[in-house]
Amino acid sequence: MELGATTLREIHNQPAVWRACLQSLDALNFELLLKGRKPETHEWLFVGCGTSYYLAQAAAASATLLTGVEARAIPASEYLIFPELVIPGSSKRVFPVLISRSGHTSEVLKVAEALRERGIEFLAVTCDGRELAGLTPRVLRLPVTEDSTVMTSSFTSMLMALQYMAARVAGREDFIDALHALPDALAGLLPVYAPQLQAFSAYSLEDVAFLGQGALYAIASETALKVMESSSTYAQYFHALEFRHGPKSVVAEGVLVGGLISETGYAEEAAVLREMKELGARTLAIANHISPELRGCTDLCIELNLPVPELARLVVYVVWGQLLGSYMGQRKGINSDSPRNLSRVVTLAG
For 230-285, what is each residue's pLDDT tens digit? Predict the structure, then answer.
């Protein structure tokens, strides 16, 4: 069996997983799930660890943009160590959304217990369920079975579910329709770009940086993490325009700069990627539409060409980092199914 076969299979199977999740979401009673906890009355606070924290950031950005009411994201550890910074005093006008693929992550479970002690209701978002699902009557559980250590289809499915939830609250049926278009869209893109990414991964890379703005910043963060987890390659993430302000000092031959380019900031973000190419970086551009100018100065372009709102494309952007990390791991002789120093669930003693 090839290295990372399970992870690669689960990445490629995401269109089918998304269809199953969307079918489940269509049948879910969101009025009952969110009763008394709408964004107009309670601040939505998304909480996770690792990949689930980046998911929380993307979900908070999505909720803010879809509902017009600000939402926040924090790592679970922040609440455990500095709870008064997160939820000051006796305030209960907050609705935490706790995210854990396994429902067994120690820090998330500790946050759940602490919230229960304060009488603060919360929503659990999970795939496996386990202990987290037993700590609240509000549970959004997705039909995702994932055997790999790193989160791939669970990340995209839970993010899609949280976007769906925000769109339903906001009355954005057009956005929900856009989410339904994504499985077929990704199924068409994978045969085109997966082989190109596999070939691209043959280059020896010493350092990797992914850039994104707005909601895509969280996706750039997760993309970098996937490369680190799956290939033991050092990877960083930055707001695209911030990369000029110091971080570009790492740019040289053997450094990859990947741009997750938005439509809203296309001109400014594409200009950063062009500058990094001129400084000697190897470059990767992921965008909905790619101009001839950018195509001419980028080593690999992934053009999504999706006729859906910009925010609805987030889950499609992250797939290519998942694949790149696995392919880079293969090239280095690393099994992304069992990455060094990692386990499927982080559990702490005591």
Answer: 988 899 999 999 999 988 888 988 999 999 999 999 999 999 999 999 999 999 99
Name the DSSP class of 349. -
Contact status, residue 112 vs residue 106, Cβ threshold 8 Å = no
Q: Which two tokens stand for residue 281?
A: 């970086």
pTM of the model: 0.95
What is the sign, positive or negative, of the torsion defined by CA atoms of 222, 226, 232, 238? negative
Max CA separation in the chain (angstroms): 58
Distance between CA atoms of residues 156 and 318, nearest Å: 8
CA distances 300 to 204, 231, 334, Å, are: 15, 19, 23
How far lies 65's CA from each of 60, 78, 164, in Å?
9, 24, 13
> Which residue type does 164 have?
Y
In order of 182, 341, 344, the CA distances from 350 in angstroms are 42, 21, 19
Handedness of CA 318, 308, 268, 274 (dihedral sign): positive
Structural domains of the chain, with CATH: 5-171 (3.40.50.10490), 182-331 (3.40.50.10490)
Token pair belonging to 151: 């989160």
The answer to whether 46 touches 56, Cβ cutoff 8 Å, is: yes
Q: Give me the DSSP letters along 103-120.
A: S--HHHHHHHHHHHHTT-
The closest of 254, 255, 224 to 239, measured between CA atoms, is 224
- SS3 call for 32: helix
- The residues near 54 (Cβ < 8 Å, ≥ 6 apart) are 48, 155, 218, 219, 221, 222, 225
